[in-house]
Design a protein that fits this description.
This protein is of the alpha/beta class and 194 residues long. The chain has 2 domains: 114 residues, 3-Layer(aba) Sandwich (Rossmann fold); 36 residues. It contains 7 helices and 5 strands; from the N terminus they run βαβαβαββαααα. Strands 2-1-3-4-5 form a 5-stranded mixed β-sheet, with helices on both faces. Helix 3 links the parallel strand 3 and strand 4. Helix 5 packs antiparallel against helix 6 and helix 6 packs across helix 7. The model has no long low-confidence stretch (mean pLDDT 88).
């Protein structure tokens, strides 16, 4: 006989999972209290690294049903959610998402929906990369300096190189210029080999 579990997650301690539990009950799912897993952890943390999620996985068996209110409760992004749903399906666990009309994401229609969601996420990611690359190209064409500003002026970098050439240690130069050893080494290495 299949058992029903619920996974309710919020990102910060000033939030509560109560609304998610109510949504699940209002949708007609009866979940025994010991089968409701709640946790407070950022969605940026992979499901496999969440204590509550690991606890849930240890309880789930083939034939069980897992209810979530929204897909983002399961993972960081569409690709992560898809991998999570596929792993659960491989265990024989059906996953229902209330935000998608209670659809079983492991059913043929659910798999198609997940495919569309994944394709849209990949498309959006590709557009973001394309826009970022276009912006960087435009900035370069306009002569803008990209990246983090240097912590040393060109004069300070030149001074550091001269002091290193006279045998002063990287640590001593860094300390006197009020910067890190790595910054001094970058200034040293920025000079083309003669």
């Amino acid at each position: 006989m299949s058992r029903t579990f619920a996974y309710c997650r919020v990102s910060t301690s000033d939030q509560t999972t109560e609304n998610q539990s109510r949504e699940i009950a209002a949708a007609g799912f009866h979940v025994a209290p010991q089968r409701v897993i709640t946790e407070t952890v950022s969605g940026s943390v992979a499901a496999s690294e969440r204590a509550g999620w690991i606890k849930l996985l240890n309880k789930l068996e083939a034939g069980d049903v897992l209810i979530v209110t929204k897909l983002d409760r399961l993972g960081r992004n569409a690709m992560d959610v898809r991998a999570t749903v596929e792993a659960l399906a491989a265990m024989g666990v059906r996953v229902h998402c209330l935000a998608l009309g209670g659809m079983d994401l492991t059913s043929p229609a659910g798999k198609m929906t997940m495919g569309v969601i994944s394709a849209m996420a990949e498309f959006e990611r590709d557009l973001l990369i394309e826009r970022t690359q276009a912006g960087l190209s435009r900035a370069r064409a306009e002569g803008k300096t990209l990246g983090r500003p240097s912590s040393l002026t060109e004069e300070q970098a030149q001074e550091a190189r001269q002091r290193l050439e006279t045998g002063e240690s990287v640590s001593a130069v860094a300390k006197s210029l009020g910067t890190s050893r790595q910054t001094i080494m970058r200034a040293r290495d920025a000079v083309p080999a003669g």
